[in-house]
Amino acid sequence: MVELVGTNSGDVYAIGRDAIAHWDGKTWSDVEIPDVKGDVFGGWTDGKQLIIVTNDWDKSTSWIYRRDEKGAWSLDGRSKGVLLNVGGSSDALYAIGNQGLILHRIKSGAWRDETVQHADQYSQIYAASVDDIYIAGSSLLHSRGDGKWSDVKLPTTESATTVWGRSSNDVFAGTMGELFHFDGHAWSKTGWTRDVGPLAGNAKMVLVTNLRDE
Which helix (H) or strand (E) element contains residue 166? Predict the structure, then answer.
């Protein structure tokens, strides 16, 4: 399985390389996938639509597919390079990948290229709002939604591999050894001193996956 995405306990998608299942709060059901190109590497939903990214690693080409409210699939975008994930929010949606590849879905439905000029890989996205977006993978970047991305410096020499948050002044970023918190003013250590995988949580807790099972 690639990942789990959803909007609530009755709307969850389990996304695999070549299969997708949906949980409606009672049962799992298969989601029919069209004859997509490449393997599925990530997905996102807002409860109305499902968007997935696929790629052909050998040919360095990626595709973005969209499933609408009626269940109809369509090709939503295509890019040179390897996309690894898609996420954010309905009004701040991004597809990201290798070699600094960043695509932003604008109001017209087109995907605007915002690729940064370095070789870092990005696979995690957190959008607090349309003008407050973070992505992580080999480093941590931030954007105000204007197409410009800047490096975020954490109080460590380690690279940020994942990012998640609850609001603009409550953001968490993890490395291969620590977890950091942003309170709207500065980043600080949380006391977690193990590897950090994908993050999740709610208003009361933060869930941390540990990649090395320590």
Answer: strand 162-167
Q: Which two tokens stand for residue 89?
A: 């929010």
Nearest C-alpha neighbor of 166 from the set 153, 180, 183, 154: 183
The total of other beta-carbon atoms located within 10 Å of residue 102's CB is: 24
| Total number of residues shown for the chain | 214
DSSP conformational letter for 178: -
Indicate the pTM of the whole model: 0.93
Count of other CB atoms within 10 angstroms of residue 201:
14
Are residues 84 and 94 in contact, defined by beta-carbon separation less than 8 angstroms?
no
| SS3 at position 41 | strand
Which tens digit of pLDDT belongs to each residue from 135-146?
Answer: 999 999 999 999
Question: How many Å apart are CA 138 and CA 211, to the nearest integer?
Answer: 15
Q: How many CA atoms within 13 Å lie on the side-chain side of 11?
A: 10
SS (H, E, C) 106-117: CCCCCEEECCCC
- What is the DSSP-derived secondary structure letter of residue 214? -
Contact 53, 105 (CB under 8 A): no
